[in-house]
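Researcher: Sequence recovery benchmark, item below. Answer with residues only.
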């Protein structure tokens, strides 16, 4: 079961990696795709939100960030507020168990200095192929996602970032399930 889940995760990441750039090229200058890249995440047992976790989690995924149509310039400055949608698919593991994690997260962003730095804050939904990792029970396959991150763009088409991502069932499946806080390092290509 674990090997099947890992193969499914790798397959979905591969499909996302191969189809996203092809779709973006067809849009040329007006591409809705902002960036795409791999992410590595880990958790500690003491989360920002919720109760203490039973296991340390590890995430490897691929994320694509899409431009949504709403933006607002902040006065005469180079700063602006924007909207975006982050989609991701990857492999989540803990306590010798692993599964697929896919997310869709709309977010507000604050970018400045000609997009040299961007902050974002969002909330969305995650789908999980596995609900239990060792003795830690997530409750069910659908989880609420909350995330905050910062990205810097040192070069024209490259970025690096750090993100905190929390997922939990928000009490949907009862009070006995635990959420997870992940600390994620991201790099990638910016269009």
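Model:
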């Amino acid at each position: 079961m674990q090997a099947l889940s890992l193969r499914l995760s790798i397959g979905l990441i591969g499909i996302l990696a191969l189809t996203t750039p092809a779709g973006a090229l067809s849009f040329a200058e007006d591409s809705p795709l902002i960036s795409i890249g791999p992410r590595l995440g880990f958790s500690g047992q003491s989360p920002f939100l919720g109760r203490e976790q039973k296991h340390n989690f590890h995430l490897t995924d691929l994320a694509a960030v899409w431009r949504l149509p709403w933006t607002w310039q902040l006065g005469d400055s180079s700063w602006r507020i924007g909207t975006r949608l982050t989609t991701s698919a990857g492999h989540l593991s803990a306590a010798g168990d692993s599964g697929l994690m896919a997310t869709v997260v709309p977010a507000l962003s604050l970018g400045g200095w000609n997009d040299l730095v961007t902050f974002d804050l969002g909330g969305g939904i995650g789908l999980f192929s596995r609900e239990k990792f060792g003795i830690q029970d997530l409750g069910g396959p659908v989880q609420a996602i909350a995330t905050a991150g910062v990205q810097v763009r040192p070069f024209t088409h490259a970025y690096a970032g750090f993100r905190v991502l929390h997922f939990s069932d928000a009490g949907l499946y009862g009070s006995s399930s635990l959420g997870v806080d992940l600390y994620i390092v991201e790099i990638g290509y910016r269009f």
